[in-house]
UniProtKB/TrEMBL annotation, chain B:
It is a multi-pass membrane protein. Its EC number is 7.1.1.-. Keywords: Cell membrane, Membrane, NAD, Oxidoreductase, Quinone, Translocase, Transmembrane, Transmembrane helix, Transport. It is an enzyme of class 7 (translocase). Residues 157-455 form the NADH:quinone oxidoreductase/Mrp antiporter transmembrane domain. NDH-1 shuttles electrons from NADH, via FMN and iron-sulfur (Fe-S) centers, to quinones in the respiratory chain. The immediate electron acceptor for the enzyme in this species is believed to be a menaquinone. Couples the redox reaction to proton translocation (for every two electrons transferred, four hydrogen ions are translocated across the cytoplasmic membrane), and thus conserves the redox energy in a proton gradient. NDH-1 is composed of 14 different subunits. Subunits NuoA, H, J, K, L, M, N constitute the membrane sector of the complex. One of its GO terms (molecular function) is NADH dehydrogenase (quinone) (non-electrogenic) activity. The chain crosses the membrane at residues 12-34, 46-65, 85-103, 139-157, 163-182, 194-216, 236-261, 273-294, 306-325, 332-353, 359-380, 408-431, 443-463. Belongs to the complex I subunit 2 family. InterPro entries: NADH-Q_OxRdtase_suN/2, ND/Mrp_TM. This is NADH-quinone oxidoreductase subunit N. Pfam families: Proton_antipo_M (PF00361).
Length: 662, 557
């Protein structure tokens, strides 16, 4: 464990900013591009070979992802050998764009932040690949599924390893594409295809933000690589510009990370196969927005207004997701709402500034483990229950699926924030950070701290509800179409082992990384280390308050969903429940505000296009063709007329020259 | 008493020309002495070797000329400088590629040429020659002679050599045009027209040379240039001469209003020869035009701009507009080549150093795509009711659905068309970008603007063919028109004496036969493949070639 300790007890920093990047090219860093190359090559191979690789294609996918993890691990170990202050490295891959004033080389930024993501993505990704081998066993397009998964891993690694915003944008679009393809993997079912389209559109809105931010950065800093933008002297830039960049980046983050007001797609994205929900829509891709904000820390630090908006968005989303999660009966949609809410925590932390960056990423990592584990558990339940997703049709499954029960239970304890499980170490820190006044605004500390605290209580309620409805209480299983009883059974080993490993992570990772502030110190070269004020309530009081709220939430859920009867048909419920069931009318609002006016607008545009634009174009075209027909008549086929034309041309030209000259 | 001093001859710098012309002369002898059975093989390998030798000679001279800037050879008759070598290299390379298509007899076992070009079309003698399987292998030496003339054309340093080179390159082409195996009357009519109009243009040019000589008292470019640098009062003689000189060259590149021969000749000539002619002649003629405009009459720029601008505008507009209404593939490509002549002229008009290298690059990529496109046209044939493969299926409607049945062939054709249209990532885009930006640099932005508009118009008919090939259904039944064999039909029309305008009428003919694609002997595949490669590579990585040309684009005065 000597590496771990050296990692934790790195040289102490005293209020330093992010370290400057050091170019490297030799040793393990030279093979770092393989991180992206391996899964990308595997995806290309699987797609090109087509059905020929059906028999072994999934194992190639697993292998590519695992190999990427090994490369990532070796790079990580090499980085640990370096001094903490020398851990920000640039690997140059080649010249990318060289156009006039715009020079951009493609390269990889290896630093503690990106390495954290690399390890998370490849490790959890590999486990989910293994899980999918069994989960997708009966799908005749399994190979295509693995190709898309590999494509996703490659794109996600491009996103986090890029050394410029433009290259990051490539990965950003790449994960969007992979997500779209995987949500609509069963696109022969119309609702699934519609869900994929919805995710695609919502993401595009966010992408506009990133594109505008790119433009603003280029105009402001003269470049879009991290060194130029983040290393710039922010005091020389007007705060309005920085706020603009920050807000545009936030818009991008909202699209990708399903934050308010662009959150509506995440629930529908559950149409994809469950491993996809686990990998993309819980553990990795949806957290890209948090990565973007933390990566752009210098910009946000210099734009307090943008930071405040980030915090507000995070706070709204964490409550929004939690409320929606209380009313959902579809196990995957409930988990999706929970994901939204947890990312809300991360965004809130990221918006708090230097005090929160490390905790945002910390929570992102622990959340990656426990949420992926729970999604895989949900997949296992669906596997055993004939693809049933309605929790009102579960109940008492603990006896039949012991491994799933235990692993899911560990994830449940982790998300509740029960010590010593993972969530406790990361989420409680966020709550504590939220209670620290920024710029002396005590009201902000009270407001956002209370929201985070309240969210923890609601989280405890809806996650316990989910857990109890599924595993406790009496059986409410539906009968099959042929009238026989369902026989829930444990999933095969290929599915349970990833769940077990993730459960171990859910249980212990927080402790390992959180003790002695190891993780925060590890990230310090990127996030910087800053002195911060004291929370308005003593940390001990906060921990106790949080735990009380969590216990209250869990006990309420226990009374309602474990020991009393859960109706199979959902009761009408209160107005709030009804609203939460339809995502607090998000879709209705979107339809009324955007979709319908948009449709009217497009219809009128189409009309204008057909009559005015097409009319003009067709008119020009017809005139030209008419002219052509006319000119064509000059091509008589007679040599004498050709010669006459030449002579006439010559005479006219000579005459013109002479006239002009004289 | 005068003594004869033998001129100093720099044989090394003449080597590309000498190799090709020497090989052509030997080729004539081969024709007489090699047994008929072996003749084609010997002639073909000999010609390929000669052209490859010329290419190697160009490469050997390259670095020397790059450092020295060039030399005059044979007194002031020829000049070997950067542009000369680039053009000679381009011509030799394109000639090799075109020769491969010429050599391909396809799976039908018949080449593109009449078994005996001297026989009267439709006569018993022709039939007998066909049955005997005679071959007109004189094609190869003729092609070498033409290529030799083309190699001299851009290297000339006095007006007399210019004229001689023009004739050396033109005469074999007149002959080759008239030698098509199918539609022989159309072919002979085209040759006749080409010859008559060519002779007319040559006469105009010669007249122009005489006038320029009368003004300057010299045929040498350098002397003329120094005389015309400061035109005096009596320069209408010079101006008229210069315009007529330009007209001779503009005829060769097919610029409007001196383009009328292009569609008829391109359509009538054997398709592989059309490819050769369209690519190599254009390269040589533009080379000569560049040299004349840049080194002989730059002093007259202000007076002659109106000529060049008018011709450039007319060429772009007329070429594009008439191409839109064509129904015959070869005529369409002919008008497209007219339009391209206009695009290249914008680079010539620019009169900037960048203009030279842009034009040189454009010529290379245009030549490659042209030979490739005509190579594809050569392979797409008609099949008559008995299933016998006959001539090329040149009516546009016969190309419908070709992409479904022959994706590779149609795909390469589509690539060439997209390159013609100047779609990014094809070489044509880089070429167009080069000439138009050179025109803007040279202050001719209206030409560049018009060029972009004309390109957009041209893209319309190129893309229409792509759509036709890939997204239309093939005609299932032959139209119930006259099921006549094309050449017979042409005969009927001509014998009826109603009109000699066969070319136009045949173009209007409704398709009556099914379309098929013949296999190749491999030569055409290599050629088309090479053209695809050039079009893609120069579209994606143009920088090395652009750099190499940019270092070689200074004319020696």
């Amino acid at each position: 464990m000597n590496t771990l300790t050296s990692w934790a007890t790195s040289a102490p920093f005293a209020d330093i900013g992010p370290a400057a990047a050091e170019p490297v090219s030799a040793g393990i860093y030279a093979v770092a591009p393989l991180l992206v190359g391996l899964p990308l090559g595997s995806a290309a191979l699987l797609l090109l070979l087509g059905r020929r690789s059906d028999r072994w294609g999934h194992w190639l996918g697993v292998l590519a992802s695992a190999a990427a993890f090994v490369v990532g691990l070796l790079t990580f170990l090499a980085m640990l050998d370096r001094d903490a202050s020398n851990r920000v490295l640039d690997v140059r891959v080649g010249d990318w764009i060289d156009a006039g004033a715009f020079h951009l080389s493609a390269g990889m930024r290896l630093d503690p932040l990106s390495m954290t993501f690399v390890l998370l993505v490849t490790f959890v990704g590999t486990l989910i690949h293994v899980y999918s081998v069994a989960y997708m066993d009966h799908d005749r397009d399994r190979r295509r599924f693995f190709a898309y998964l590999n494509l996703f891993v490659a794109a996600m690694l491009v996103l986090v390893l890029a050394d410029s915003y433009l290259l990051m944008f490539v990965g950003w679009e790449g994960v969007g594409l992979a997500s779209y393809l995987l949500i609509g993997f069963w696109n022969h079912r119309t609702p699934y295809a519609v869900a994929a389209k919805k995710a695609f559109v919502a993401n595009r809105i966010g992408d506009i933000g990133l594109i505008v931010a790119l433009g603003l950065m280029f105009a402001t800093f003269g470049g879009v690589d991290f060194t130029t933008v983040l290393g710039a002297n922010m005091s020389g830039v007007s705060e309005a510009t920085l706020t603009g960049i920050g807000l545009m980046l936030l818009l991008a983050a909202c699209g990708k990370s399903a934050q308010f007001p662009l959150q509506s797609w995440l629930g529908d994205a559950m149409a994809g196969p469950t491993p996809v929900s686990a990998l993309i829509h819980a553990a990795t891709m949806v957290t890209a927005g948090v990565y973007l904000i933390v990566r752009s820390a210098p910009v946000f630090d210099a734009a307090p207004t943008a930071q405040l908006v980030v915090v507000v968005v995070g706070a709204i989303t964490l409550l929004f997701g939690a409320i929606v999660g209380c009313a959902k009966d579809d196990i995957k949609k409930a988990l999706a709402a929970s994901t939204m809410s947890q990312i809300g925590y991360m965004v809130l932390a990221a918006g708090l500034g230097p005090v929160g960056y490390a905790f945002a990423i910390f929570h992102l990592v622990t959340h990656g483990f426990f949420k992926a584990g729970m999604f895989l558990g949900a997949g296992s339940v669906m596997h055993g229950m004939d693809d049933q997703v309605d929790m009102r049709r579960f109940g008492g499954l603990a006896r039949y699926m012991k491994i799933t029960y235990v692993t899911f239970g560990l994830g449940w304890l982790a998300i509740l924030g029960v010590p010593p499980f993972s969530g406790f170490w990361s989420k409680d820190k966020i709550i504590e950070a939220a209670f620290i006044p920024t710029d002396g605004h005590t009201w902000r500390a009270w407001l956002f701290g209370s929201v985070a605290l309240l969210g923890a209580g609601i989280t405890a309620f809806y996650m316990s509800r989910l857990f109890f409805m599924t595993f406790e209480g009496e059986r409410r299983w539906s009968t099959r179409t042929d009238g026989s009883q369902q026989h829930p059974h444990e999933a095969p080993a290929l599915m349970t082992w990833p769940m077990i490993i993730l459960a171990i992570g859910s249980a212990g990772l927080g402790l390992v990384l959180g003790l002695g502030n190891r993780f925060v110190d590890w990230l310090a070269p990127v996030t910087g280390e800053h002195e911060h004020g004291e929370p308005v309530l003593a940390p001990g009081v906060l921990v106790a308050l949080t735990l009380v709220l969590v216990v209250v939430g869990a006990v309420l859920a226990w009374r309602r969903y474990a020991i009393s009867t859960v109706p199979v048909i959902p009761p009408v419920g209160t107005a709030l429940t009804r609203a939460a069931r339809v995502d607090l009318y998000q879709d209705a609002v979107n339809d009324a505000l955007l979709v319908e006016p948009g449709q009217h607008l497009t219809r009128s545009l189409v009309y204008v296009d057909k009559t005015v634009v097409d009319g003009a174009t067709v008119g020009v075209g017809q005139t030209t063709v008419g002219l052509g027909q006319l000119l064509r008549k000059t091509q008589t086929g007679y040599v004498r007329s050709y010669a006459a034309t030449m002579l006439l041309g010559l005479v006219v030209l000579v005459a013109t020259v002479l006239v002009i000259q004289s | 008493m005068s003594t004869f001093t033998a001129p100093h001859v720099d044989w090394a710098h003449l080597s590309p020309v000498l190799i090709v012309l020497g090989a052509a002369a030997i080729g004539v002898l081969l024709e007489a002495f090699v047994p008929a059975r072996l003749r084609r093989t010997v002639q073909l390998s000999f010609s390929l070797a000669a052209l490859a030798g010329a290419l190697i000679a160009v490469a050997a001279l390259w670095s020397g000329v790059k450092s020295s800037g060039g030399v005059h050879v044979l007194g002031t008759a020829l000049v070997v400088d950067g542009p000369t070598l680039v053009l000679q290299g381009t011509i030799a390379l394109l000639a090799i590629v075109a020769l491969l298509v010429v050599a391909d007899r396809t799976s039908t076992g018949e080449d593109a040429f009449a078994p005996s070009a001297a026989s009267v079309p439709g006569s018993d003698y022709e039939e007998a020659a066909r049955r005997l399987g005679l071959q007109q292998t004189e094609v190869y030496p003729l092609l070498l002679f033409a290529t030799g003339g083309m190699l001299i054309f851009p290297a000339t340093a006095d007006l007399l050599t210019l004229f001689v080179a023009l004739e050396v390159l033109s005469l074999p082409l007149y002959l080759l045009t008239g030698m098509a195996r199918r539609r022989r009357l159309l072919s002979q009519e085209a040759a006749m027209k080409y010859f008559l109009l060519g002779a007319f243009a040559s006469a105009l040019m010669l007249f122009g040379i005489a006038l320029v000589y009368g003004y300057s008292g010299s045929l040498s470019y350098a002397t003329i240039a120094s005389t015309t640098a400061n035109p005096t009062g009596t320069d209408s003689l010079l101006l008229v001469g210069a315009v007529m000189l330009l007209v001779g060259l503009l005829f060769k590149i097919g610029a409007v209003p001196f383009h009328a021969w292009t569609p008829d000749v391109y359509q009538g000539a054997p398709t592989p020869i059309t490819g050769f002619m369209a690519a190599c002649t254009k390269v040589a003629a533009f080379g000569a035009l560049l040299r004349v405009v840049y080194t002989v009459i730059p002093g007259l720029k202000w007076d002659l701009d109106v000529v060049m601008w008018t011709v450039t505008i007319l060429t772009m507009v007329v070429g594009t507009v008439i191409a839109m209404v064509q129904t015959d593939m070869k005529r369409l490509l002919a008008y497209s080549s007219v339009a391209h002549a206009g695009f290249i002229l914008t680079g010539v008009v620019a009169l900037t150093p960048g203009g030279v290298s842009a034009v040189l690059f454009y010529l290379l990529v245009y030549g490659a795509a042209t030979i490739g496109a005509f190579g594809v046209v050569w392979l797409v044939r008609e099949r008559d009711a008995d299933g016998v493969v006959v001539g090329e299926a040149t009516h546009l409607s016969q190309w419908a659905g070709l992409g479904r049945r022959h994706p590779w062939l149609a795909g390469s054709f589509a690539l060439f068309l997209l390159s013609f249209a100047g779609i990014p990532l094809t070489a044509g885009f880089v070429g167009k970008f080069g000439v138009f930006s050179a025109a803007v640099d040279g202050g001719a932005w209206p030409l560049a603007l018009l060029g972009v508009l004309a390109s957009a118009g041209a893209a319309f008919f190129y893309v229409r063919i792509v759509v036709l090939m890939f997204f239309s259904d093939a005609p299932t039944e032959p139209a119930a028109g006259e099921p006549l064999e094309p050449s017979t039909q042409a005969d009927v029309v001509l014998e009826g004496g109603a009109t000699p305008a066969v070319a136009t009428l045949v173009a209007e003919r409704a398709p009556a036969l099914t379309t098929t694609v013949v296999g190749t002997e491999g030569w055409a595949t290599v050629s088309i493949g090479f053209c695809v490669l050039v079009t893609v590579l120069l579209g994606v990585f143009p920088t090395p070639v652009l750099d190499a040309i940019a270092h070689m684009s200074t004319f020696l005065p």
